[in-house]
Amino acid sequence: MTTIGLVAATAAGRRHAGTLAAAWPHARPVEAETTAEALRTAWAECDAVVAFLAAGAVVRILAPLLGDKRTDPAVVVVDEAARHAVALLGGHAGGANALAAEVGALLDARPVVTTATDAVDLPGLDTLGWPVEGAVAAVSRALLDGAPVRLVADATWPLPALPDNVHVDEGSGAGGWRILVTDRIVPPDERTVVLRPPSLVAGIGSSRGVAAAEVTGLLRRALADAGLSAASLRCLASVDVKADEAGIRATAEAYGVPLATWPAAELAAVDVPHPSEVVRAAVGTPSVAEAAALRGGGTLLVPKTATAMATVAIARHAPRGRLALVGLGPGAADLRTPRAVAELRRAAVVVGLDQYVDQIRDLLRPGTRVLASGLGAEEQRARTAVAEATAGHAVALVGSGDAGVYAMASPALDHADDRIDVVGVPGVTAGLAASALLGAPLGHDHAYLSLSDLHTPWAVIARRVAAAAEADFVAVLYNPRSRARDWQLGAALKTFAAYRPPHTPVGVVRHASRPGERVHLATLATLDPAVVDMYSVVVVGSSQTRVVAGRMVTPRGYRWRE
After folding, report:
1. For residue 553, pLDDT beyond 60
2. Binning pLDDT at 50, 70 and 90, where does residue 71 land?
3. Are the CB atoms for 69 and 94 separated by under 8 Å?
4. ∠ CA(217), CA(219), CA(220), 5° rounding?
């Protein structure tokens, strides 16, 4: 975990530092005989520093210690009144920009970020999570200046949205500014930045007790001879009996990648060009290195090559697209999760219902491709999002509430296969938003039911309503009533009334957390279905639900106050 040193010189600064220390177990005040000495100590001992000092003083003290932005600690400076949290050093590489935002959230201070790409809402080339080489600063400046930049990639990778002055170049045209996405070793030039995608898997076989130096040396030579960059290694792979082989594990650690191991029977099913019966007799599969490199698909670039005790093979694997299933919450911006916002800004393609996309257009990066459609096109939106992800793009499929509750996650995952990575982003559902406005009606067992019979026969819905009523669940009713479906809610309430007393509380919330929000409290005997529409959520209490001070409360099972 990142350690954060807190340095303060005044009583106010120490109070602010105490707020951070109380919230973050990984943050600690750093003290010394002088403030300058405390700052230098925090710089030497911590991964990041938050200094409650003047920015000029911090610059003068730390200037002699500056080394490399990739290894120096991040530094955030907070003023005496905690009005601003300034990302002073290590904005991207050190994480100071993100830290400034976190400090600001805790101290109610305004994060100040001066990194050029962040200031104009562009993704920094060194913030994409991949190793980056070459002319990072120069190409970033070209992006900012609006100069033509070519994106040249060996394949389509799930990059975030890039601005309109970036053009995909499927050729290898020379000259101009260039972003090159490749695992190949290329000669450097002053107008190219190279992003290293995680495309390579190195299969490793060995005798017991192999030295790390032998494995590391063999892998290094194999990569170099094939003109491949070690920075694009996704993982090392082997048979599961090698999971504890010290030399292989040390090699994975040296390259900073995980070690994946597979059962011999699984590797034996992989078709390889150079099987060995000797290897089969020893470990139960005719191939370790080649099979492990190729497992899950891929193209063999380096057939097995061996030393006395180690064997290496290298395969290139196709990109995996990225599909984020993003729940936007019930409508209010402050009920939208930070993770949802991050995924929207991570995406190059956003797919969703037009009215939901309109809610979040201001969050999207320049260059984001938006595929919006109207009501009734849910199935097509799901297929479109999966197809875009399967093509290798970073996609966000958005919906209101939670993506998994009567929303887009289910139809999308019904089409998605194992060629893409899926990220689920939970959201606040309409049922939860309504419950919070009504009180605490979901304090005990409850059921979510949709009364829409567009996709489910009413006979099935009616049986489920009856089961929930008989089981005495609190019921949250979605899609309760529309102009075309005006009788289903009345039928459902009649079913609940057969099992519960007439004074059972029923709450209706319309436009929860949105403009025009309305809360209506009634009972099974008094609720008029005419106050309900498709923008409403209906919550039917159980036999134990009470109204206390105008709020619905369902006891959890603790002794109820008489």
Report:
1. yes
2. confident
3. yes
4. 65
Q: Are 331 and 400 in contact (CB under 8 A)?
A: yes
Amino acid letter, residue 447: A
Per-residue pLDDT at 253 exceeds 90: yes
In DSSP terms, 481 is beta-bridged to: none
pLDDT beyond 70 at 558: no
Neighbours of 502 (CB within 10 A): 9
Rounded-to-integer distance, Cα 146 and Cα 160, Å: 18
Residue 139 carries which side chain, given as an amino acid letter? V
In this predicted model, what pLDDT tens digit does every residue of 36-59 receive, in sequence order? 999 999 999 999 999 999 999 999
* Sign of the CA dihedral running 161, 166, 169, 173: negative
Coil, helix or strand for 37?
helix
Residues 6 or more apart in contact with residue 464 via CB below 8 angstroms: 449
The per-residue pLDDT for 174 is 58
Of 148, 104, 143, 101, nearest to 126 by C-alpha is: 143
DSSP-based three-state secondary structure for 180: strand
Chain centroid offset of residue 183 CA: 24
Tell me the per-residue pLDDT of 4-46, one tens digit each, with 9 for 90 and over.
Answer: 999 999 999 999 999 999 999 999 999 999 999 999 999 999 9
Q: Amino acid identity, residue 417?
A: D
Q: Of all residues in the chain, what percent are helix, strand and coil, respectively (each to 5)?
A: 35, 25, 40
3-state secondary structure of 235: strand
CA-wise closest residue to 354 among 334, 332, 376, 337? 376
With bands split at pLDDT 50, 70 and 90, how would you rate the model's confidence at 137?
confident
- pLDDT category of residue 241 using cuts at 50, 70 and 90: very high
Q: Which candidate, 327, 514, 497, 522, places its Cα nearest to that of 438?
A: 522
Distance CA 95, CA 180 (A): 24
CA neighbours closer than 13 Å in the CB half-sphere of residue 245: 28
In terms of C-beta distances under 8 Å and separation of at least 24 residues, what long-range contacts does 125-132 make, across chains too?
125/179, 125/193, 125/195, 126/92, 126/93, 127/92, 128/159, 128/160, 128/195, 130/195, 130/196, 130/197, 130/198, 131/195, 131/196, 131/231, 131/232, 132/193, 132/194, 132/195, 132/196
Residues in the chain: 562
Q: Are strands 518-523 and 505-510 parallel, antiparallel or unpaired?
A: antiparallel
**Which tokens in the block code for residue 212?**
């790390």
pTM above 0.70, yes or no: yes
Render 371-435 in DSSP notation, one character per residue.
Answer: EEE-TT-HHHHHHHHHHHHHTT-EEEEEESB-TTSSSSHHHHHTT--TTEEEEEE----HHHHHH
At position 218, the amino acid (one-letter code) is L
Separation CA 81–CA 104 (nearest Å): 12
Over residues 200-217, the pLDDT tens digits come to 999 999 999 999 999 999
| pLDDT in the model for residue 432 | 96
**Which band of pLDDT confidence, cut at 50, 70 and 90, is reported for residue 120?**
low
User: In angstroms, rounded to a whole number, what is the distance separating the alpha carbons of residues 544 and 238?
Assistant: 58
